[in-house]
């Protein structure tokens, strides 16, 4: 599989998504200004797919970085594929377009390349991003996700966004949209946790059967944010099998983990605020894993999730109760 740094997948609406993306989420110890500088570094290195979200709280700074790299001639706007996300307090149809317009305003962009429903779990609509009751329990809401999707379709028709998709959806939730009456646009992607310990084979095959791209986050394990991640879980990049295969190609464990996903047809979102690692993670286009290597890595699957977000678990649309 010959791949180049500008390799992309063609989405079911005809738009092109680069096969490796730069993720801009980071734990609280990192500042928004660091997100801006890291995004500039990533664009300089060659990343053209930038993944962000309203809830990350740094779209203003990420927008600054993109516009700075356009202004200095490094890229043109059409070279950048920007992904934004609809947060869980904005599922009500009348709140969808205002949420997208807020992201556009913060970014300083005229359109977003891809806007995805961040999670099928909905919270009480309002200004609180994590609304809780007097006992500290999340206040949920339950808009029909098909109505949210119709509002996204209207945003696409209005030219505010080029492609629309979902994130953290299981098969049943995808099918609900796919089988919706008067469906105008299929989701172009489903962005989910995907790595060597959770390889999502069944969900990947289902998505491929529907011409939906599976986009993987936490492909290098996780940022190990102690708000979400069990600190006793294994550190993916310390896996001896990745290290051993890496020696064979003179590559890092991260390179192997990323290349594995790309060869399976998964678009890989990588995250780091370290300039050296941002550069290292991009060096996945000058080698190819063998069929045998791919099978060995397939065998590392443990169905282990780093991100199961227990505060969502009581919602009827919590996606992780099903196998896939």
From TrEMBL:
Q: Which residues form the active site?
A: 56
InterPro entries the UniProt entry points to: AKR, AKR1C, Aldo/ket_reductase_CS, NAD(P)_OxRdtase_dom_sf, NADP_OxRdtase_dom
Residue intervals of the NADP-dependent oxidoreductase domain:
20-301
**Domain of life assignment:** Eukaryota
What's the short name of a Pfam family annotated to this entry? Aldo_ket_red
Is this entry keyworded Acetylation?
yes
**Could you confirm whether the keyword Transmembrane helix appears in this record?**
no
Q: Where along this sequence does the record place binding of substrate?
A: 118
Similarity section: Belongs to the aldo/keto reductase family.
Please state what the protein is called. Answer: Rho crystallin
């Amino acid at each position: 599989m010959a791949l180049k740094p500008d390799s992309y997948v063609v989405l079911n609406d005809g738009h092109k998504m680069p096969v490796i993306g730069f993720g801009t989420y980071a734990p609280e110890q990192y500042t928004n200004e660091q997100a801006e500088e890291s995004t500039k570094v990533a664009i300089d290195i060659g990343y053209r797919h930038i993944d962000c979200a309203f809830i990350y709280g740094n779209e203003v700074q990420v927008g600054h970085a993109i516009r700075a790299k356009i202004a200095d001639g490094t890229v043109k706007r059409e070279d950048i594929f920007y992904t934004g996300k609809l947060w869980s307090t904005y599922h009500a149809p009348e709140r969808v377009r205002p949420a997208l317009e807020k992201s556009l305003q913060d970014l300083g962009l005229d359109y977003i390349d891809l806007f995805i429903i961040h999670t099928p779990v909905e919270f009480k609509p309002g200004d609180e991003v994590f609304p809780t009751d007097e006992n500290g329990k999340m206040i949920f809401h339950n808009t029909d996700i098909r109505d949210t999707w119709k509002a996204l379709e209207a945003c696409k028709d209005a030219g505010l966004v080029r492609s629309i998709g979902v994130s953290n959806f299981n098969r049943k939730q995808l099918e609900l949209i796919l089988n919706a009456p008067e469906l105008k646009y299929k989701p172009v992607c489903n962005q989910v946790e995907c790595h060597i310990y959770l390889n999502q084979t069944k969900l990947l095959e289902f998505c491929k059967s529907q011409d939906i791209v599976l986009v993987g986050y936490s492909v290098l394990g996780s940022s190990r944010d102690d708000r979400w991640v069990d600190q006793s879980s294994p550190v993916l990049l310390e896996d001896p099998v990745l290290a051993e295969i890496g020696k064979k190609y003179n590559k890092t464990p991260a390179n192997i983990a990323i290349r594995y996903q790309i060869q399976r047809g998964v678009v890989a979102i990588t995250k780091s605020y370290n300039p050296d690692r941002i550069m290292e993670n991009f060096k996945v286009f000058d080698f190819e894993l063998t069929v045998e290597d791919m099978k060995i890595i397939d065998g590392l699957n443990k169905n282990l999730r780093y991100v199961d977000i227990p505060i969502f678990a009581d919602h009827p649309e919590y996606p992780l109760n099903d196998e896939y």
